[in-house]
């Protein structure tokens, strides 16, 4: 059987998926983990800490993808590299957006999360920064236009992936891979006629 | 004094801002509006209907901006037209994202909202479609590259604005107008060297 802490994090992930963040109380999480609330609080000080552990430990799809991208400067096509990252980003956001969005509906939870992020230096802006670094490196070796703003380019691509995951919760959409291909192609060519 | 229905919608907006969507119960909303819950239910069948009224009636910044944009085909600069829309979009998303995000944390609320959207034909994808239509019209008259995908371009710009509003809830960011300028400039020029 998994160690208690892992069991609690896994149970929390399950409860969030089933009941939503709003109803994912420590009581429900303890019940799903088959432990007491007292034991739960031996491993985590607050509910926010459990949610952060779910985000960091159960939904790790994005960090490997941004690290892989950083190792690809000057290799393959930029289109291929960006498409792979965008695919991972949409998958990651689809899995995490209920958790991330749900926090916005609860100011006290949001505040606790802001403080944890400020203390850790981490947060949802970090992958955008890593994507911008990759684009800046490609720019340095001449594969990206000197006119382009790498931070803006990263914000456009990540933003589209994030918004896509949000929309998917509310309306029916076409397949992701078609979108990813067109997002990257349009970002590379730009709108101004050549 | 405002008619009861307006007072309820205004009270709901206030309660959502103060307590978050999670704690914005009909009991709290009725108390803030100075009416009984019974009276509240004479005007709205469900809490979802009140939230939808808040979205549609109290946060109307985006529709006028997309309509203005549609009237600007072939006029001014594309950069100027897109910057104005992006500015309105960020402002709109900043005001609405707690409400929109909060719904993702509550599957029953989200489901009610999905059904209302499906019945109305409206939803958060509509402004993206209107932006895509504007870009397609500019493409038709030769001001946008024939290679560009208007739907992808609209998804990139709106997505960046939406993600920005989300990040602003969690981490400190620079000024919006600088970002908007760079987003539009990068979308127009593209990343591929000319």
From TrEMBL, chains A, B:
<feature type="DNA-binding region" description="H-T-H motif">
    <location>
        <begin position="25"/>
        <end position="44"/>
    </location>
</feature>
<keyword id="KW-0238">DNA-binding</keyword>
<dbReference type="InterPro" id="IPR001647">
    <property type="entry name" value="HTH_TetR"/>
</dbReference>
<keyword id="KW-0804">Transcription</keyword>
<dbReference type="InterPro" id="IPR009057">
    <property type="entry name" value="Homeodomain-like_sf"/>
</dbReference>
<keyword id="KW-0805">Transcription regulation</keyword>
<dbReference type="Pfam" id="PF00440">
    <property type="entry name" value="TetR_N"/>
</dbReference>
<protein>
    <submittedName>
        <fullName>TetR/AcrR family transcriptional regulator</fullName>
    </submittedName>
</protein>
<feature type="domain" description="HTH tetR-type">
    <location>
        <begin position="2"/>
        <end position="62"/>
    </location>
</feature>
<dbReference type="InterPro" id="IPR036271">
    <property type="entry name" value="Tet_transcr_reg_TetR-rel_C_sf"/>
</dbReference>
<dbReference type="InterPro" id="IPR050109">
    <property type="entry name" value="HTH-type_TetR-like_transc_reg"/>
</dbReference>
């Amino acid at each position: 059987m998994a160690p208690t802490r892992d069991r609690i994090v896994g149970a929390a992930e399950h409860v969030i998926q089933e009941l939503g963040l709003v109803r994912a109380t420590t009581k429900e999480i303890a019940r799903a983990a088959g432990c007491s609330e007292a034991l739960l609080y031996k491993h985590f000080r607050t509910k926010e800490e459990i949610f952060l552990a779910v985000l960091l430990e159960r939904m790790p799809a994005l960090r490997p993808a941004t690290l892989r991208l950083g190792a690809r400067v000057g290799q393959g096509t930029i289109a291929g590299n960006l498409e792979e990252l965008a695919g991972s980003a949409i998958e990651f956001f689809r899995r995490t957006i209920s958790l991330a969005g749900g926090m916005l509906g609860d100011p006290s939870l949001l505040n606790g999360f802001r403080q944890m992020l400020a203390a850790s230096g981490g947060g949802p802006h970090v992958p955008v920064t890593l994507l911008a670094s990759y684009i800046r490196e490609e720019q340095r070796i001449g594969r990206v236009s000197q006119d382009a703003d790498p931070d803006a380019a990263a914000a456009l691509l990540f933003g589209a992936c994030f918004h896509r995951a949000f929309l998917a919760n509310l309306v029916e959409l076409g397949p992701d891979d078609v979108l990813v291909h067109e997002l990257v192609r349009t970002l590379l060519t730009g709108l101004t006629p050549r």
